[in-house]
Amino acid sequence: MPSTEKSIFGDISNQEKEYLPLSFGTVPTIFTRMISKVPKSPKIVKLRGDRAFYQPVSDEINLNDFNIKNNLRARRIFTHEFGHKIDHNVANILLVKDDVAKKFIPNPNRLVVDIKPKTIKFASGGSYTKSGVKKTLLDDVLNKQYGKNSVQISNSAQTQIMADRINLKDNIKVGLTGYTDDLIDLKNKIVGKTFDQRFAIRTKYLDDIINSKSFPLNKNEVKILLREKGITYDPTKTQTIDFVTAIKHKLVFSEYGKPIKLKLKNGTIFTASTRDAGTNVFDPMFADYVGAITDNAIGFGHKRSYYENFFKTETIKRGYGKITYGHSTEAFANFTSLSNTDNKEIYTKLMKYYAPQTTKTFNELYERSKLL
Ligand SMILES: [Zn+2]
User: Which end of the chain is more exposed for a tag (fewer CB within 10 A), N or C?
Assistant: First the structure.
């Protein structure tokens, strides 16, 4: 074979030749096409301790675990850091290609700031008009004030991230009520029953949820995700019941969960928080995906203080906070990792189920790699 064949990843370093196929596969996708458009990485630096990050200024990925081939967590982390690189590298390209940027960013002329001019009348009869302010999504994403290495294409999804955040946050009370009702119903059904009867009731409980139309995964897919966490699907085990019930109600453990009073089906008042549902059952990168979108109203990974320490996009809503560059780039990096590593088809379903708008927009950005 002549060596004229071009890599699906374009011009890449020797380290990338080793790691990229393990993370992104060996057949061309919208992801490999995007990678083929960005510069090759400088040497990937080894860190001590349990840390990994991407540095936009030097374009360096830093890892502590290089066992990308055999360790799923290492593979997901490398792919996540590469997601940050793509986020920054592509924005750098668009910063100097205005015509491409207008096609690449979905709905670029939509106003993210639209303050109308305001006329104030004085009692004396005079008046003065305060001028309005307008800013387009394009101008916010390719923010000239911050410039190269600070801009990120993930900010193109700021409106969708906020929309998913509102839905997921508004769902918490309803979701926790349904979650608690389900578990109480189950408890009432098994009380006083024999082991075999309890097993049959719990098996039916899980099957009914999983087979319902709105549940995003089939039983085998649930089994595979639990196995990733070293958990065996077992109707007698709390973790299996918790995982399936938490997915049904779109909940994921959050350490920031505050106790809320819920009115249950039987009329009693019950106190619960997002600390109670979906505990130790979700992959940390999936938990970080919904965590980044909701500022940890559900999910976990990066802390709220971490997200706060970034530039802000123009998207802000009272009661729901801001979308910072931290929220958008972490969501994008987690999306990139979960869309490409092991069981990507299952995680894609789960991401679409919890955060349909963000997931759809990130996918669109990767599709638009053809424009670069
Ligand atoms: Zn990250």
Answer: N
170 and 274 belong to one structural domain: yes
Structure tokens at 169: 């946050």
pLDDT per residue as tens digits for the range 143-184: 999 999 999 999 999 999 999 999 999 999 999 999 999 999
Q: Does any domain span residue 138?
A: no
Quote the ligand 1 centre to 160 CA distance (angstroms).
19
- Tell whether 270 is covered by a domain: yes
Residues 214, 81: one domain? no
Of 84, 101, 118, the domain-final residue: 101
Number of domains in the chain: 2
- How many A from CA of 271 to the centre of ligand 1? 34
C-alpha 155 – ligand 1 centre gap (Å)? 15
Of 158, 215, 153, the closest CA to residue 352 belongs to: 215
Centre of ligand 1 to C-alpha 339, Å, is: 15
Distance of CA 332 from the midpoint of ligand 1 (Å): 9
Token pair listed for 131: 């001028």
Q: Which residues surround ligand 1, an ion (CB under 5 A)?
A: 330, 333
User: What is the whole-number distance in angstroms between the Cα of residue 131 and the centre of ligand 1?
Assistant: 39
What's the 333 CA to ligand 1 centre distance in angstroms?
Answer: 6
Apex 49 CA angle, 47 and 54, nearest 5: 45
Residue 170's domain spans which residues?
Answer: 154-368
Model confidence over 209-264: pLDDT tens digits?
999 999 999 999 999 999 999 999 999 999 999 999 999 999 999 999 999 999 99
Strand partners, 120: 128
Shared-domain flag, residues 200 and 347:
yes
Residues 170 and 51 grouped into a single domain? no
Give the Å distance between the CA of 249 and the centre of ligand 1. 27
CA of 285 to the centre of ligand 1 (A): 10
Q: What ranges in the chain are assigned the alpha helix state H?
A: 14-24, 30-35, 72-95, 98-104, 137-141, 158-190, 195-211, 219-228, 238-248, 284-294, 304-308, 325-338, 344-354, 356-367
The answer to whether the predicted template modeling score (pTM) of the entire model surpasses 0.85 is yes
CA of 90 to the centre of ligand 1 (A): 17
213 in a structural domain? yes
Is 74 among the domain residues?
A: yes
84 C-alpha to ligand 1 centroid (Å): 7
